[in-house]
Write a structure and sequence with these properties.
mainly beta, 3 helices, globular
Amino acid sequence: MTTALLSCAGRPVGRYSYLPAAHDGRPFLHPVTTLAGTPVTEERPADHIHHLGASVAVPDVAGYNFWGGRTFVRDQGPTELDNHGVQRHLGWKLRDPDGFVEELSWEADGTELLREHRTVAVTGLSDTAWALDLSFSLTNRGTTELSIGSPATNGRPGAGYGGFFWRAPKEFAAPAVFSADLDGEEAVHGGTADWVALAGDGWTLVFAGATEETRHDPWFVRSNEYPGVGSSLAADRRLSVAAGATVVRRVVTVIADGTLDRDTAEAYVRKVVTA
């Protein structure tokens, strides 16, 4: 069984399930909701059918696509290629209502490229907010170095997505975007910041890098075309992973009812990152 249900303060707040391998198989969180029940994730929207709620997805692992959709090819653009990999569920180390620990195998062409250890934990913060703590470690299982890339490293400027990614619901108005000292998609996208917030109609998401390595990764931010936030493993240069080496990242997301101001968002971040 590859499904897990998450709850906070006795209320359901998330479902973790698996997209079949025939559709770029990987696990993802959807729906994720606020404590009041407002959905804050989107699954397979018409504008980007490969967007799956909150997940870990990479468009280029040694040339294989673990993101879904077309692959960006230098001097050619988005191209349909037979290069898709799957994240195969190996088993649970722990599975409780307030979190789980999972083992995954990233496979392509019958070969395991990466072994992942994923941990997800739920923490209550207040009557109107809770936090989703997601960490992942990716270990190169091969005998030679492999590299992680993105459309940006393959020639598409500004498209450095890949790693932790959260697709939010598309609403009539684009959500507000802000960090500790910047406002707007253009200002926040592509830069590093301790945290980034996305505020929609009656909800706010605050994404915080919870390790030094994660805080060094630039944020990928979209609000106008579609609402989404990611922490980029290879925003402008490929990330090399030596044989046997492990890449570790951790993002904590505050999920709140209502619209948070900057000071409140900052206070929540201090609380969850310290914890």
